[in-house]
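Re: that chain you flagged

S.,

Sorry for the slow reply, it's been a week of failed gels. I finally had a moment to sit down with the sequence you sent. For the record, here it is as I used it:
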Amino acid sequence: MTTIQCQNLAHQQRSPQTILPNLGLVCITASQQVRFKTITRTRYLKLSFEERESTLRLLYQNNLQRLHDALTFCEENQICLYRMSSGLFPMNDLEDQIGENILEEMSVDLSKIGQRASALGIRMVLHPDQYVVLSSDSPEVVQTSIRILARHARDLDLLGLPRSPWSLMNIHGGKSQRAAQLVKVISQLPAAIKNRLTLENDEYAYSADEILAVCQEAEIPLVFDAHHHICHENLDSYNDPSVATMFEAARSTWKNPDWQLVHISNGETAFNDRKHSNLITAMPDIYHQAPWIEVEAKHKEEAIAYLRDWWLMGQ
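Prediction finished late last night. Pasting the structure tokens below so you have them in one place:
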């Protein structure tokens, strides 16, 4: 197996000896080792005030332990990048403030997560759900989106994670042909959100070129997704020249290029199928230059191990 050594890079450049891309685990494992509990809004709202408090307290305590377990799993499997679930602490943004208050009470335990991640050299990031649409033409949707991001930013603060793209919150552009609105909203975001915010190209609304222009104007980093790019442009190879061009352009948006994060997935039934495959069997050559890669494949840690065997070992 390829030997990977995680380093604490939150406030520094990568060591010249670090030549292999870091492959990241997304949320859970294919096995049962990393799993989290949740509760639906409908079920939660049926509970009494006392039941809500006791239910969320137990759920948050469980998920906090599972988050420790996720770091342990990453340490044991030499995984240096971990994308947390956006549903880690459900119902903590409701008007009853029960979840918010419980998390504040757990702040010491939460901060130990960030301290442990830093000690292990594991980078922790977040991808808020699809309901975050900063480019919406509905003011209500925009305000709801900002509230969601503020809740996630508060969680990252409680976890003791830095307000920088090291601990990024990555979202899509949202409603198409609304780039000016997107830039305007981003420019007005509080620092706890904006300093962590990144944007990603997608298959439908925003091409890599379009979202690059937004990132350049808003002065935030671009998380380049090669599979979204080939789907959007209907390409037949990850080594199409435009892939390398967009990778390099995305890198220029990162003030610290050694923090650049990219995504990879493969099509399930065909090269440009938008559904994710179980494993990663094709990679852009330019990704050998990527410092951090989130592996978006159904078989999770198995896909990372497989990618290490056939791709990293070939470097």
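What I noticed first: The two ends are 13 Å apart (CA to CA).

Talk soon,
D.
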